[in-house]
Amino acid sequence: MDGYVITVWFVRILFLALLYLFLWAVARVLLRDLRAASRGPAELGRLVVVASPRGEPQPGYAFPLDAVTTVGRDVNNGIVVDDPFASSEHAVLTYRGRTWYVEDLGSTNGTFVNGVQLSGIGPLGFGDELQVGEVRFRLDRGRE
To answer: What is the torsion angle, in degrees rounded to the nearest 10, for the CA atoms of residue 48, residue 77, residue 119 and residue 98?
Structure first.
């Protein structure tokens, strides 16, 4: 056989091998993504009850947070606080970018972050304490 023909066959086989290697890598990435999606979404964060003088919600209970979570006495809130000092729609937590923000929704008794009354919107970091009425929460990282 001619050297040119051997070179052409070698290039063809190398091209096919690289093509199959690329397809295998794509299939592997797709399977990994499908497996991750089947596990369900990871929690963005959670509010853990630190203190609740009236006992509801129970201290130690953790509420998983969505990207937008409302807190208050009304049953339509994401986190229902059974406290007479909490407003029906007391505060809202939002996750923007990589930071949590809390906004007081004009509550009568105010919303406190680390013991300081919040006016408007303020950032909330992991480990910070949020007080709604007499109930105190701690923002923790979500479980993955």
So the answer is: 60
DSSP per-residue codes, 41-55 = PPP--EEEEEE-TT-
> Is the confidence at residue 131, as pLDDT, over 80?
yes
Nearest to 63 by CA among 88, 83, 43: 43
pTM, 2 dp:
0.69
Q: What contacts 110, CB < 8 A, 6 or more positions away? A: 104, 117, 118
Q: Kindly indicate the confidence band of residue 58, based on its pLDDT and cuts at 50, 70 and 90.
A: confident
| Cβ atoms of 80 and 89 closer than 8 Å | no
Across the beta sheet with 79-80, the strand order is 79-80, 68-72, 91-96, 99-104, 121-124
Beta bridge partners of 46: 64, 140
Ranges of H-type helices in 1-144:
3-38
> Tell me, what's the pLDDT at 98?
86
Q: Could you give the percent of the chain with pLDDT greater than 70?
A: 96
